């Protein structure tokens, strides 16, 4: 389930962000977390696993007028390869339906795979209706 970050989840969010390679060091992690809390144009969203009721993934974004820039994606190791990144991106698209979703050098490959999956899905739907 796609949910917005709130401060009651701060420790969980920091734990997930620590999976991001350049944020493993606490000296870099804390300022990055603070920037999501303090800046209105930066937001964190979480993924709550419905079976376990645990928060298992996070996506950090920077929002501008027509674009959402995905800065960070982190998934708990035991939940990787389950399609959670795609579900996070689907939730983000539903939350910002008129915005284009782009990524940084680190997150762009995930977004490219997600975009390709969407194109394939749309192609299947189109060919199925002919």
Automatic annotation (TrEMBL):
State any single GO MF term.
acyltransferase activity, transferring groups other than amino-acyl groups
A Pfam family this chain is assigned to: Acetyltransf_10
What protein does this entry describe? Protein RibT
| Record domain N-acetyltransferase: where | 33-100
Enzyme Commission number: 2.3.1.-
Name the SUPFAM superfamilies for this protein: Acyl-CoA N-acyltransferases (Nat)
> What are the UniProt keywords, alphabetically?
Acyltransferase, Transferase
- Give me the gene this protein comes from: ribT
């Amino acid at each position: 389930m796609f949910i917005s970050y709130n401060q009651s989840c701060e420790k969980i969010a920091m734990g997930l962000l620590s999976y991001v390679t350049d944020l493993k060091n606490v000296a870099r992690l804390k300022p990055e977390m603070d920037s999501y809390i303090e800046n209105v144009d930066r937001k964190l969203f979480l993924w709550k696993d419905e079976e376990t009721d645990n928060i298992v993934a996070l996506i950090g974004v920077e929002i501008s007028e027509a674009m959402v820039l995905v800065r960070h994606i982190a998934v708990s190791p035991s939940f990787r390869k389950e399609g959670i990144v795609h579900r996070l991106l689907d939730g983000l698209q539903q939350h910002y339906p008129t915005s284009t979703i782009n990524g940084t050098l680190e997150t762009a490959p995930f977004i490219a795979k997600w975009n390709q999956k969407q194109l394939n899905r749309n192609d299947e739907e189109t060919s199925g209706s002919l």
